[in-house]
Write a structure and sequence with these properties.
The chain has four helices and three strands. The chain is α+β, with helices and mostly antiparallel strands. α1 crosses α3. The chain is flat, with a radius of gyration of 14 Å. The two termini are 20 Å apart.
Length: 107
């Protein structure tokens, strides 16, 4: 997915990984997340949210970042708690979807 989410392209390879979604029941308004987000779109990802991928396929899934994640986590710390839980259980990557507040883990 590129742009503002309008350009979606299929991945050529079948990726033998597990993907789990989690939501703690609290939503976030997209408007509020963008209001909180006042930084350049080139912010480096938080390195604590990454582990070295076990395979090339896992690396493909783990190779990007969500520019809105820091702002959403500031508004809703539960996002970070979900990410921490995924990593504690062995996920290679834990990321927030869209402008929040669902989180996914890749194992």
């Amino acid at each position: 997915v590129t742009g503002v989410g309008e350009a979606v392209e299929p991945i050529d390879a079948v990726i033998p990984s597990h993907l789990v979604l989690a939501w703690d029941g609290r939503g976030l308004a997209t408007r509020e997340v963008f209001r909180c987000y006042d930084r350049a779109l080139t912010i480096e990802a938080d390195p604590s949210m990454n582990r070295r991928p076990a395979s090339r396929d896992a690396a493909l899934l783990c190779s990007d970042r969500n520019d809105l994640e820091e702002a959403a986590r500031a508004l809703h710390p539960g996002i970070g708690a979900l990410q921490d839980a995924f990593l504690a259980e062995g996920a290679q990557r834990a990321m927030m979807t869209g402008s929040g507040s669902t989180v996914f883990g890749v194992a």
